[in-house]
């Protein structure tokens, strides 16, 4: 054991004891091994977004977003502190060029703010950069 082994068993051994010891080592390994980094979960401040389950939690509360709101929030949270123009948000989320649809993004941003911010008029997370666009602030 002093040379790096975690356990040993003497001969003759009982197969049931061997299985029990192996299972014990597996439990110990999974309990104390560092968790794998989960790229499907993004956390910025009090917002936690799970890309796989399509869930958003703000300060532990589950927030319901429409699919487009979820896509916008995912784009912003994948790139914290990066400013996206309204046109860039539209093109990335809707996958089509902007014509006169900039108000659509503004309305969706307002709805997201109403859902994730305590006071949407003084947002903690979803910030406007006047004349440029929007960003999620860490």
UniProtKB/TrEMBL annotation:
Domain called OmpR/PhoB-type: residue spans: 39-138
SUPFAM superfamilies: C-terminal effector domain of the bipartite response regulators, CheY-like
Organism of derivation: Clostridium botulinum
GO cellular component, one term: cytosol
Keywords (A to Z) from UniProt: DNA-binding, Phosphoprotein, Transcription, Transcription regulation, Two-component regulatory system
Entry's Gene Ontology molecular function annotations: phosphorelay response regulator activity; transcription cis-regulatory region binding
Protein name in UniProt: Stage 0 sporulation protein A homolog
Function as written in the Swiss-Prot or TrEMBL entry: May play the central regulatory role in sporulation. It may be an element of the effector pathway responsible for the activation of sporulation genes in response to nutritional stress. Spo0A may act in concert with spo0H (a sigma factor) to control the expression of some genes that are critical to the sporulation process.
Domain of life from the UniProt record: Bacteria
